[in-house]
Structure formats: structure tokens, C-alpha cells
Amino acid sequence: MTYLEITLKIQEKNRPSAAEVYRKFKQPFLSTIPGAKSKELLVREEDVQVLHGFDSVEHAQAYLKSDLFNKDVVVALQPLLDSGPEVRIYQVA
Length: 93
Known about the structure:
Layout: E1 2-8, H1 15-32, E2 36-43, E3 48-54, H2 57-63, H3 67-77, E4 86-91
Antiparallel strand pairs: 1-3, 1-4, 2-3
């Protein structure tokens, strides 16, 4: 299992809108992205994280280059971000 973690700095007042973006694109992610296994929204006081599960590192990296990510998700989130996202890929040992 591989995880793609995207950490987003989003002000509390904008978090409901960010959660709506998450809900809107969760099913298209799971049904159209190769290797996609799961997608979870994690909310902390200091930020919001989206944790994506994949079957491989290659599929996680490919998602970051996909139209769904770049033309849909990024565009929808852009006005809500306080700074650029922090992206990390983890592989389960």
C-alpha cells in the first residue's frame, strides 16, 4: 500500500468549502484513477490533510500528473489555500 498525503493550509472559515471539494471529487478519484484504493479527509486545528491510498508509488505519482488532479481538484482548491500544498508519498513497509 502507498499513501499520498497532501497537506493544505486553509483558514477555518474556508474549510466547509474545501470539504465540499473533497466530497465532489472523491468518487471520481476512486472510480477513474488507476490504482486508487481510498481517500480520506483529515482535519486538524492547524491544517487539513487529504490522504489518498494507492496500490503503488507509480500510481500515486501518476495521479499528481492527472487531469482530475491538475484541472479539477487544484483549480477548485486554489482560491481557498493560504499557501502551496505540501505533498508527500509514503510506502508501507
